[in-house]
Amino acid sequence: MNLITACLRVKEVNSLCYKYSSMYEGIYAARDFVNMPPNELTPRKFADAISELLQGDTARVACMNKWAVEKLQMGGIIAVGKGSMNPPQVVTVYYEGDAESKEVLGLVGKGVTYDSGGLSLKSAANQEFMKDDMAGAATVVGVLRALMLLKYPVNIVAVLPLVENIPSGMAYHVDDIITMYNGLTVEVKNTDAEGRLILADALTYAQEKGATKLIDLATLTGACVTALGTVRTGMIGNQQEWMNTFFRIAEKNHEKIWQLPSDAAYDKALQSRVADLKNTGGREAGAITAGMFLKHFVHPSVPWLHLDIAGTAFQETPDETGYYGATGVGVKAILEVLRGGRSEG
């Protein structure tokens, strides 16, 4: 909590007010997108809305349609989007706030605008609230919207893979083997483990576009909700210092994180006899093995952390204030990381 006292000058008060009003504009933008019904937020409509919201002096938006994605051979995104009459889109946003710096933060957000589970169909009860499966992408959009107002001297490349995971005669199957954008082959053992497939291609693309650090956000696994409930976001990464920095700043800004283990032994669950990887390691340690899957698509020299916001992105029941729905989780923490984690004193 920040207290505005008599010792603060008018300029400092104005600066604080502008910072928090900009931050909450980003949070409300993320919430609004997540709360939209899925028939009003198809991949194409989401891509168009992002372009309209973020196009500006410091941000540049590029959209790829289904044919462009197929030409690049983004196998994960192509496979997951095959079943829907609403074809996949990939939105890339470049925020250029410091032309002198070569440091570029890559932000990748899962953008499944509706997740039925595909041919591995969820139960009717488990399909409720699956409009929130694009909350990772919405958080990234919220961060960028706030940055356009705050004008921090940082560089961002954001990659947002947008798909619907719907069963049909065109849908991808269990036991398919798909070739990912980075050339690895993946044996599909569950079409409801789709988020990691689109994120993997997006992570590869973000590094290709110059990302020197990475954060991905995704409502990725029910296993994370089982482990941490709706209180904390799960975190896995490849460099402890980067994870420690994010944990400290997130906690200070009232966004609770918990680091999950990532021992090499967990990787064994993803071994396939017929491909480089399986897309799921089974029920045991599901949040961990999902994160470990993504690690295969990040160069070891690039600091990366994965945030599983499955439990924290959406409040399904009203809290003590009566609020329910999308939370915009992650916007505050990422903005503070970009600001350098300084406190106001």
UniProtKB/TrEMBL annotation:
InterPro entries with a match to the protein in the record: Leucine_aapep/pepB (IPR011356), Peptidase_M17_C (IPR000819)
Q: Which Pfam families match?
A: Peptidase_M17
In the UniProt record, does the keyword Cell inner membrane occur?
A: no
> Keyword annotations for this protein?
Aminopeptidase, Hydrolase, Protease
Database matches in SUPFAM superfamilies: Zn-dependent exopeptidases
Question: Does Translocase appear among the keywords?
Answer: no
Q: Where is the Cytosol aminopeptidase domain?
A: 190-197
Annotated GO molecular function terms are: aminopeptidase activity
Q: What does this protein do?
A: Presumably involved in the processing and regular turnover of intracellular proteins. Catalyzes the removal of unsubstituted N-terminal amino acids from various peptides.
Protein family according to the UniProt entry: Belongs to the peptidase M17 family.
The molecule here is called: Probable cytosol aminopeptidase
Species per Swiss-Prot/TrEMBL record = Megasphaera lornae
